[in-house]
Amino acid sequence: MGEVDPAFIQDTQHRPKLAVIEAESIPLIDLSSAKASNHVSQIADACKNWGFFQVINHGVPSESRRKIEDAARKFFALPLEEKRKVSRDEVNPMGYFDTEHTKNVRDWKEVFDHVVSSPAFIPASPDPDDKELKELINQWPQYPPELREVCEEYAREMEKLAFKLLGLISLSLGLPENRFNLFFEESANFIRLNHYPPCPIPHLALGVGRHKDGVALTILAQDDVGGLQVKLKTNGEWVRVKPTPDTYIINVGDIVQVWSNDTYESVEHRVMMNSEWERFSISFFFSPGHHVWVKPLEELTKGEEPKYRAYNWGKFFVTRRRSSFKKLDVENLQISHFKVSE
To answer: Which residues form the Fe2OG dioxygenase domain (predicted)?
Structure first.
């Protein structure tokens, strides 16, 4: 990434402490059928108290994960000019990018995004009166030649796991298992390959700055280097999620927080850097169709007022994506902007 750009420097209050608190106790849920009777209560506890959990015996073949991790390493090892041949931009947000911003500070990372299902559409602009849609077009590099195939195979496995988890979350809220499924028709789920090069200023910069995920669920595969930190709901401390072999890290997104009327909460997380090792991870972002209006579910607001006004997911998504490309003079759009005043 060349010389250190001041755009990477976090404000003083958001700089990471290099003395790391390790979170041994982030819930680890065994999804094997032998443990099925415990799944719903464990999911409820994890979503309510942590907003994050890990799953093991999840059904995703280890070979599928190994192949996409190998292909990601090959892609990010390419010369910069090769990677930039498939650069994303504000017109088509799928492809390679190395100047992403979170909370208006540049992240120490490079990414490759691709949409899971084609065709996939999002609103053409954040303007609420603009009804035009645009198609998300995947850009596949010439090398490695297997990247497209392994990504598409992995995506199918991620969608199966995501629907399984969504059903368990629905049951944990006292709803039918398939309550959320219709929201995910025509969805624009996407996968992000992440590469975090060694950072000479790990005390000043972050791989990804503090943020909450705007989607319904995120499924993360991280390597053995680690670096993901979660902000505890109990005391506001940042704790590191220790890498556990063959697990996936699941975090509840903003959409589930709104649907549940704050029964479950999306929590802040970030990625710490180190000066010695590069880090790789793969994120799967699970979200409803662009046409879906997100609001607290009627079944979960009986006897209490909805805590959020309805918002259109597609418009929310494209508004948030604008802040990824460049530093803006305004705060990123958050679900808090739709909170009903008490």
So the answer is: 187-288
